[in-house]
Amino acid sequence: MMEYVDVVDAQDNVLYSVPKTEAHEKGLLHRTVIAEVRDTQGRYVLVRQAADRQDPGQYVSPVGGHVRTAESNDDAMKREAMEEIGIEGFEYHPKGKFIFNRFVKGRQENHFFIVYEITNAGKLKLGSESVSYKAFTKEELKMELSSNRKDFGIGYIRIVENFYPELLE
Predict the structure, then answer these.
(1) Angle at 64 between CA 57 and CA 21, to 5 degrees
(2) Are strands 30-39 and 59-60 parallel, antiparallel or unpaired?
(3) What DSSP element (H or E) covers 92?
(4) Which of 12, 51, 87, 136 is most buried when burial is the number of CB atoms within 10 A of its CB?
(5) pLDDT tens sequence across 84-111
(6) Is 72's pLDDT higher than 80?
(7) Of 168, 93, 85, 163, which Cα lies nearest the Cα of 128?
(8) How buried is 157 (Cβ within 10 angstroms: 0-12 exposed, 13-18 middle, 19+ buried)?
(9) Hey, what CATH topology would domain 4-164 get?
(10) Taking 90 as the threshold, does the pLDDT of residue 58 lie above it?
(11) Where are the domains of the chain?
(12) Is the Cα torsion angle 146, 168, 130, 26 positive or negative in sign?
């Protein structure tokens, strides 16, 4: 089944719908939900991406995926959380939006990121896109971002810059 996404403008207004593959082939701006996960102890939970993904072997946000045509952002985030880390029934809140554009895997990614933060008390069950996960305290994550920035995907770095700048101080 072909997956369709909405092409949007810089203000997140829907222009038209296309197959996801076309959006990627042509570098069209389309919505992607991203969710940062904090456990009930306040730790930041990150996943290491599988070798076939955009940021192989690097730490990235645990939840990320496309918003399908006619799907709400919240519903897309909940669907992706179940698919990628096996959780449901969690608390969440929106953090904000921004455009993330880069050339990777032979294509121009042009994503309108819709970022959430999830609070999760349960154990994660990773899907095929990740190989492991780790929970970092604020101090541990600050130290890793300072000394080992190459271990983190660029999308995650942009999210930290936009919504968690205290982690870079």
Answers:
(1) 95
(2) unpaired
(3) strand 91-104
(4) 87
(5) 999 999 999 999 999 999 887 777 889 9
(6) yes
(7) 85
(8) middle
(9) Nucleoside Triphosphate Pyrophosphohydrolase (3.90.79)
(10) yes
(11) 4-164
(12) negative
